[in-house]
Design a protein that fits this description.
Elements: H1 6-17, E1 34-36, E2 39-43, E3 48-59, E4 62-78, E5 81-97, E6 100-110, E7 115-126, E8 129-139, E9 145-148, E10 151-153, E11 158-159, E12 165-167, E13 172-174
Antiparallel strand pairs: 1-3, 2-3, 3-4, 4-5, 5-6, 6-7, 7-8, 8-9, 8-13, 10-12, 11-12
Length: 181
């Protein structure tokens, strides 16, 4: 497959995991965010809180688990609560939605854009279908998931912004086929 066609194929592969994505139920990113963790460190001057140790975050029908999550908020307080804008997760990150489970080393949930981005050893499973790659982006408004082979590492790739090394890779997976008679 030529490099020019590779991005299209990746969208098609991810689309096969999400049949009916156009009619997918929109995630309610305005729902309250409930969390549990072994510890919390409030950093008011930086407008953030750091949750650590078995972090479990739930918003509507979405669950995020990780070893550590940094919660960034705007500084605005509405109804006695700070307005959360972003969650940065690291260490065994798992995102579970009603019909999908995604895993990676790192994850970012941008509440303003309603997008979850996961990096490093990504796997996305729906039913018995699994796709793996380096980076996953889930649009919570449309339900569209896109996986590519990009990853971030410490060597063997092109150096991008801030000295971060970008490695190229491939997307792999397996689709199950219904039994035919």
């Amino acid at each position: 497959m030529t490099r020019a066609l590779a991005p299209l194929a990746l969208v098609l592969v991810a689309g096969a995991l999400t049949p009916g994505a156009a009619v997918a139920q929109r995630h309610n990113s305005d729902a309250p965010i409930d969390f549990a963790a072994n510890a919390i460190e409030l950093q008011d001057r930086a407008n953030r809180a750091v949750l650590s140790g078995g972090v479990n975050i739930r918003q509507s029908n979405l669950t995020l688990t990780a070893d550590r999550v940094t919660v960034a908020y705007t500084g605005q307080v509405v109804g006695g609560s700070p307005q959360v804008s972003r969650l940065d997760a690291s260490g065994g990150v798992t995102v579970v939605r009603p019909d999908q489970r995604a895993r990676a080393q790192y994850g970012v949930y941008d509440l303003n854009r309603r997008v979850i981005t996961m990096l490093g050893g990504v796997s996305l499973t729906q039913g018995t279908n699994t796709v793996t790659g380096g980076r996953l982006s889930i649009n919570l408004d449309t339900g569209r998931a896109v996986i590519d082979g990009s990853s971030v590492g410490s060597g063997g790739g092109a150096t991008g912004e801030n000295g971060v090394v970008r490695q190229s890779g491939r997307v792999t997976g397996r689709f199950t086929v219904p039994e035919r008679r």
